[in-house]
């Protein structure tokens, strides 16, 4: 770590703290939320946000959930969930009606049988949007692509006074994490906390 990047003593002072990252908005690559709504209507109100880990799918899903009309039902399925369908079923209202909009974050956690159950259970919902790493189970609403320029933009927003010093190193960081922007920001948090060997 160089003199420019100084370890922060308090986690809240770290520019890459989770509460700061959670406030970031998705960089939509020229696609507006209005454009996404129109696309969702075109594909029948059922669609997937597709992309690799750390590409912004969950962030975009949250933005859609806060903007779409109707009674929102958001189900977050991560790798620690042992019974994803039971968790999903528990969160869904009974019955799901046209007043509901259902969002599934981590749809790839549902196996084929569970996915069919989800489609049956939510067939009356106004909208169904899920995130997945791969396309195919529903029409693709949008594909999120990791981009070094997006990482640079996010770093500038989170740490504006140090962005210039960080910029020459972001390409290495981006490639080392396979384009996973969330992992890049997590490592930058560790750098600022004095817990990473990554040198600036």
How are helices and strands ordered from N to C?
HHEHEHEHEEHHH
**Cα distance, first to last residue?**
6 Å
Count of extended strands: 5
Could you estimate the helical fraction of the residues in percent? Answer: 40-55%
Gyration radius from CA atoms, angstroms: 19 Å
Q: Strand count, sense and closure of the main sheet?
A: 5 strands, parallel
Q: Supply the helix-strand structural class.
A: alpha/beta
Kindly estimate the percentage of residues that lie in beta strands according to DSSP: 5-15%
Q: What spatial form do the alpha-carbon principal axes imply?
A: elongated
For the biggest β-sheet, the strand order reads 2-3-4-1-5
Q: What's the average pLDDT? A: 88
Low-confidence stretches: none
Number of helical stretches of at least 4 residues: 8
Describe the structure.
It is a single chain. This protein has 200 residues and is an alpha/beta fold. Helix content is 40%, strand content 14%. Strands 2-3-4-1-5 form a 5-stranded parallel sheet, sandwiched between helices. Helix 6 runs antiparallel to helix 7. The termini are close together. The relative contact order is 0.21.
Task: Give descriptors for this structure.
alpha/beta, five-stranded parallel β-sheet
Task: Please sum up the structure shown.
The protein is of the alpha/beta class and 200 residues long.
């Amino acid at each position: 770590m160089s003199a420019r990047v100084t370890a922060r003593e308090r986690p809240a002072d770290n520019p890459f703290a989770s509460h700061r990252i959670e406030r970031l908005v998705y960089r939509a690559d020229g696609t507006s939320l209005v454009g996404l709504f129109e696309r969702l209507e075109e594909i029948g109100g059922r669609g997937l946000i597709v992309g690799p880990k750390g590409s912004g799918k969950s962030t975009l899903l949250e933005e859609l959930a806060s903007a779409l009309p109707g009674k929102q039902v958001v189900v977050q399925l991560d790798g620690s969930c042992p019974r994803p369908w039971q968790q999903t079923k528990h969160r869904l209202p009974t019955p799901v009606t046209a007043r509901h909009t259902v969002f599934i974050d981590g749809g790839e956690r549902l196996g084929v049988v569970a996915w069919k159950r989800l489609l049956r259970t939510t067939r009356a919902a106004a909208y169904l949007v899920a995130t997945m790493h791969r396309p195919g189970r529903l029409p693709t609403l949008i594909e999120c692509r990791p981009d070094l320029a997006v990482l640079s933009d996010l770093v500038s927003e989170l740490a504006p006074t140090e962005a210039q010093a960080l910029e020459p190193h972001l390409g290495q960081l981006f490639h080392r994490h396979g384009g996973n922007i969330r992992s890049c920001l997590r490592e930058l948090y560790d750098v600022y906390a004095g817990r990473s060997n990554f040198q600036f």
